[in-house]
């Protein structure tokens, strides 16, 4: 079992005691008393907090992190070691000392003597807030061979690709340890700790209360990631993009997996940068079949990279996806083969047809204005031209509109021509109107008529300014959320081979967008 430990910044007794009680209410297993948050930690106070932790049923780790390793304590090492020794005598279940402190002078002896006759166990730790350690395997064996202890290594991930060294190390260990990557780029190392039977992972009481960068909240661990159900057999999925922190996909897919009692976990995968960052990430995944990654949703800016990668590997790209030229879904088979799909196409057209109450053949020759010429536009223009719509593309960068129009044999025009073109359907495929840009609409005022259908692919917010304008004009509206649920349900089918519980997905998205 991997414990959930909530770090408590011990600034004063009352606030620390309040946080301990909250940690218990939120179903933590342990608290870590960060006594370095107090300018002069008081032994009596620490003893009382340890006793409080025990009285509510929580195990207690005590630490007094040095400023050299990201803590706030600038007391001499001797005093910090004394604080840890007293905590051991006062009933702490674990004390955490930096390896570098432990090996100085007689610190190690004092600590081992202090825990010898107690039930307290030692965590020996190393932290690097600047980036990965040069040789993490070497560091691990140095700490491990130093005495009987739980090894903790935490380093800053500068890119998600820095997490793989932590996974490689954890996989080789036959004893419990704590190997964590800090920062937003290291989040998956925290979420996946039960997959490696790690000793613990840290989680904040809420999103803002963590004591190290990148700590998830305990609520997210339990409610979004179903942390207690993760084990070594859990199959992994995730959304690759930048940014991904606010993506609804993890909550929606994990709810669907849990609803069907599948041992699957869906992660936010922040893959920064360009094509090379994406290619390196995929190479890392494919080189480690034991991680059991089985599929991905792909979003901005990697939809083009995703299809290029699969082609570069000589693997399967579904015909429709090849025609669109962008993939929003990747599947990795049990044999390690990778394939590319696009579910935006069907997600969008199904949402449009449902709102219009008609079939695909009824779209024949309908005049459609598509705003945008990026990844989503490609999928939607492909779907509309397949349905023989009369499509005109409008885009800020007119050259991109021209290129897309040439590819799909449709028209393009500058935005000021829109009023004269009198479309029957307007579709926004740009990010205009998306949070925080909520007071903007890509469509000039006065163009929308009651007999039109207006579809905004933006779903954050659900009711964009464009949709409000359309409603006011009496037009039919289609929200980005309808498309989102449709494309997620299609992905679920590709991930699991089963139909999705669409109602559950819809309910989940509705909750998330309140
Ligand atoms: P993309 O490939 O980056 O394309 C972005 C498009 O938006 C481009 O046409 C770009 O024009 C235009 N644009 C961006 N900022 C603009 C601005 N300030 N003014 C005018 N035009 C602007 O992105 P994408 O993958 O196509 O995604 C676009 C949007 O679709 C997203 O923002 C998201 O809200 C929505 N989406 C919805 C779903 C769903 O399921 N509902 C799924 C995916 C995406 P230029 O060519 O001039 O740069």
Number of domains: 3
So, CATH architecture of the largest domain? Alpha-Beta Barrel
Fraction of residues in helix? 25-40%
Distance between the termini: 35 Å
Sheet bearing the most strands, described? 8 strands, parallel
CATH topology-level name of the largest domain: TIM Barrel
Give me the count of strands.
20
Give the integer mean of the pLDDT values.
95
Instruction: Label the overall shape.
Output: elongated
CATH class of the largest domain: Alpha Beta
Work out the helix count: 20
Hetero groups: NADP nicotinamide-adenine-dinucleotide phosphate
| Uncertain segments | none
**Corresponding CATH superfamily of the largest domain:** Aldolase class I
Radius of gyration: 27 Å
- Can you list the strand order of the major beta sheet? 7-6-5-4-3-2-1-8
SSE class: alpha/beta
**Range of strand content:** 15-25%
List keywords for this structure.
Rossmann fold, alpha/beta, single chain, elongated, six-stranded mixed beta sheet, 3 domains, eight-stranded parallel beta sheet, 39% helix, binds NADP nicotinamide-adenine-dinucleotide phosphate, 514 residues, TIM Barrel
Describe this structure in a few short sentences.
The chain is α/β, with parallel strands linked by helices and 514 residues long.
What report would you give on this structure?
- The chain folds into three domains: 3-213, Aldolase class I (TIM Barrel, Alpha-Beta Barrel), CATH 3.20.20; 239-342 and 486-509, 3-Layer(aba) Sandwich (Rossmann fold); 345-478, Rossmann fold.
- The chain is 39% helix and 19% strand.
- It has helices at residues 13-25, 43-55, 77-89, 99-102, 107-116, 136-146, 163-172, 187-191, 218-223, 249-259, 275-286, 303-312, 319-324, 344-356, 375-386, 398-407, 418-421, 465-473, 480-496, 502-512; strands spanning 3-9, 30-34, 59-63, 94-98, 121-128, 150-156, 178-182, 200-202, 235-241, 264-270, 293-298, 316-317, 329-332, 338-341, 367-371, 390-394, 411-412, 425-428, 453-456, 476-478.
- The strands form three sheets. Strands 7-6-5-4-3-2-1-8 form an eight-stranded parallel sheet. The chain has a six-stranded mixed sheet with strand order 10-9-11-13-14-12, sandwiched between helices. The chain has a six-stranded parallel sheet with strand order 17-16-15-18-19-20, sandwiched between helices.
- A hairpin with a 5-residue loop joins strand 13 (329-332) and strand 14 (338-341).
- Helix 1 packs parallel to helix 2 (43-55), helix 3 (77-89) packs parallel to helix 5 and helix 14 (344-356) packs across helix 15.
- Residues 300, 344, 347, 372-377, 395-397, 400, 429-432, 434, 457-459, 480, 483-484, 487 line the site of NADP nicotinamide-adenine-dinucleotide phosphate.
- NADP nicotinamide-adenine-dinucleotide phosphate is lined by residues 300, 344, 347, 372-377, 395-397, 400, 429-432, 434, 457-459, 480, 483-484, 487.
């Amino acid at each position: 079992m991997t414990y959930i430990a909530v770090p408590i910044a011990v600034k004063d007794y009352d606030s620390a005691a309040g946080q301990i009680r909250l940690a218990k209410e939120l179903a933590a297993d342990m608290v870590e008393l960060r006594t370095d948050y107090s300018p002069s930690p008081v032994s009596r106070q620490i003893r009382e907090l340890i006793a409080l932790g025990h009285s509510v049923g929580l195990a207690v780790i005590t630490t007094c992190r040095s400023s050299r390793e990201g803590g706030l304590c600038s007391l001499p090492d001797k005093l910090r070691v004394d604080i840890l020794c007293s905590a051991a005598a006062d009933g702490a279940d674990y004390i955490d000392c930096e390896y570098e402190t432990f090996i100085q002078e007689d610190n190690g002896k004092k600590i081992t003597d202090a825990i010898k006759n107690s039930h307290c166990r030692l965590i020996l730790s190393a932290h690097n807030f600047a980036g990965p350690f040069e040789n993490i395997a070497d560091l691990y064996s140095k700490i491990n061979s130093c005495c009987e202890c739980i090894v903790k290594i935490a380093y800053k991930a500068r890119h998600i690709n820095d997490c793989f060294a932590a996974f490689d190390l954890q996989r080789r260990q036959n004893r419990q340890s704590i190997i964590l990557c800090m920062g937003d780029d290291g989040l998956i190392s925290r979420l996946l700790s039960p997959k490696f039977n790690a000793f613990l992972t840290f989680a904040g009481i809420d999103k803002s209360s963590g004591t190290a960068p990148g700590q998830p909240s305990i609520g997210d661990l339990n409610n979004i990631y179903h942390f207690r159900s993760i084990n070594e057999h859990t199959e992994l999925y995730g959304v690759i993009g930048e940014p991904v922190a606010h993506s609804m996909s993890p909550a929606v897919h994990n709810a669907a997996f849990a609803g069907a009692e599948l041992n699957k976990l869906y992660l936010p995968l922040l893959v920064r940068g360009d094509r090379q960052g994406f290619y390196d990430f995929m190479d890392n995944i494919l080189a480690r079949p034991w991680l059991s990654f089985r599929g991905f949703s792909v979003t901005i800016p990697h939809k083009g990279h995703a299809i290029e990668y699969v082609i570069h590997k000589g693997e399967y790209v579904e015909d429709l996806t090849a025609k669109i030229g962008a993939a929003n879904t990747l599947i990795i088979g049990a044999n390690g083969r990778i394939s590319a799909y696009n579910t935006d196409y069907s997600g969008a057209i199904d949402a449009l047809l449902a709102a219009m109450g008609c079939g695909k053949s009824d779209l024949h020759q309908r005049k459609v204005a598509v705003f945008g010429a990026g990844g989503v536009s490609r999928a939607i223009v492909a779907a509309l031209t397949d349905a023989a719509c009369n499509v005109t593309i409008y885009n800020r960068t007119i050259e991109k509109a021209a290129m897309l129009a040439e590819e799909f044999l449709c028209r393009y025009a500058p935005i000021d021509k829109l009023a004269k073109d009198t479309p029957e359907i307007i579709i926004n495929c740009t990010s205009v109107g998306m949070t925080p840009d909520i007071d903007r609409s890509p469509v000039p005022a006065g163009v929308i008529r009651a007999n039109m259908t207006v579809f905004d692919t933006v779903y954050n917010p659900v009711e964009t300014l464009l949709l409000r304008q359309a409603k006011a004009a009496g037009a039919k509206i289609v929200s980005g959320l309808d498309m989102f649920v449709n494309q997620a349900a299609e992905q679920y089918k590709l991930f699991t081979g089963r139909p999705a519980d669409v109602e559950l997905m819809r309910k989940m998205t509705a909750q998330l967008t309140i």
